[in-house]
Structures are given as structure tokens and as C-alpha cells.
Design a protein that fits this description.
The protein is α+β, with helices and mostly antiparallel strands and 191 residues long. It contains seven helices and five strands. It has a three-stranded mixed β-sheet with strand order 3-4-5. A two-stranded antiparallel ribbon has the order 1-2. β3 and β4 (127-132) form a beta hairpin. The termini are far apart.
Length: 191
């Protein structure tokens, strides 16, 4: 049986009298497989030859094979931070990652002293809610709001946090419990 390409015609031997007829059924399938095999073998020969373009990636997007050699190569082991940064960019996770940095690295973002007396509570639509340890620190943070926004922008990027809402510590709620007394509760400032 001879190998034929999908576009070739088979010559009939019995009833066609030597006239070409189109390959059908199993003959067509065999012709397609033979053509694919010959293309694969030709590509393998081209990769093995020095001038055949098999020496590097060549911008074709194919996976490189073999040893990488002495110079830098994309196949070399990469630090985890480089791989994660590439993944974050590819998936479009820059904004959620920056928002998570505000909460995860609060001390690095705003400084040790401010972080000791405050904590981020909520970040929604570019507005960060910060809870201070005392009412005095809440007042101090309100005065420092402009510089805090600049520090946050420098650490995590611009337009992640556009506005700060700073409040003091949350007072206990007197409206719940089995023995509740009507009225406003104790008149103290809690802080």
C-alpha cells in the first residue's frame, strides 16, 4: 500500500479502468494519518539540523528542549516571587493583591508606631476604614490622614486607597443581653 496525501487521487485498479477516483472511508483516513506522520517526521528532521531553526525558541512559542546552557534562559529555575508576580499579572489580580497588602503588611505600609495604635478594618470602593486604639489616636490619625494616604500609595500603588475613615475604639453595646435596662447606658467616652 502506498502513502497518499489527503488531496491525492487513488487510481482504481479493477473496475475504473485506470481512471482516478476520490479516496473514501478507510482509505481517506489512512491517507490523512500518513500525511500527518510525514509532516511530523519532517519537523523532527528540521529541529535536528543546525540551520533548521531548532537551536532556540525563535519566537515561535514552542517549548524549548534540552539543556539551557551557561547563559540566562527562560527554562532556568525562577524565584517564587518572580513566578507569583507573573501569575498575578496574567490573571489580573493586581488590585486584589494590593488591597490584601494593606491588611497583611499594615506595619510596613504605615510604620511601626501608627500600626501599634491602629488597625485596618474594611476596604471598600477605595475607602479604608481604620480603627484607632483610643480616641486620642483617632484624632492624631485624622491629622495625619494626608501623609498616611501618601505612604499607602507609595507601598501598594495609587488608587488602591483614595479616602480614609478613622474612628476610635468601639464601645460595648448596651442594647443586648438578658438583663437590659432602658436608657442610653453609661455616659463615658471609652478612650
Amino acid at each position: 500500500m502506498s502513502a497518499r496525501t489527503p488531496g491525492s487521487k487513488a487510481t482504481g485498479g479493477g473496475d475504473g479502468g485506470g481512471q482516478p477516483d476520490a479516496a473514501t472511508g478507510p482509505e481517506l483516513a489512512r491517507a490523512v494519518l500518513d500525511a500527518a506522520l510525514s509532516r511530523r517526521q519532517a519537523a523532527a528532521r528540521a529541529r535536528r539540523t543546525p540551520g533548521g531553526g531548532g537551536g532556540g525558541d525563535g519566537g515561535s512559542g514552542r517549548r524549548l528542549r534540552g539543556y539551557s546552557g551557561p547563559g540566562p534562559d527562560p527554562r532556568d529555575p525562577q524565584p517564587l516571587s518572580v513566578v507569583l508576580n507573573r501569575l498575578v499579572k496574567a490573571r489580573g489580580w493586581q488590585q486584589p493583591a494590593a488591597e490584601a497588602t494593606v491588611f497583611g503588611a499594615w506595619e510596613r505600609v504605615v510604620g511601626a508606631e501608627v500600626a501599634q495604635h491602629s488597625r485596618p478594618v474594611k476596604l471598600e470602593n477605595g475607602e479604608l476604614t481604620v480603627e484607632a486604639r483610643s480616641t486620642a489616636w483617632a484624632t492624631q490619625l485624622r491629622l495625619l490622614a494626608g501623609s498616611l494616604l501618601k505612604q499607602i500609595a507609595r507601598e501598594v500603588g495609587h488608587n488602591v486607597v483614595r479616602k480614609l475613615h478613622i474612628h476610635g475604639p468601639a464601645a460595648p453595646s448596651w442594647s443586648k443581653g438578658p438583663r437590659r435596662v432602658r436608657g442610653r447606658g453609661p455616659r463615658d467616652t471609652y478612650g
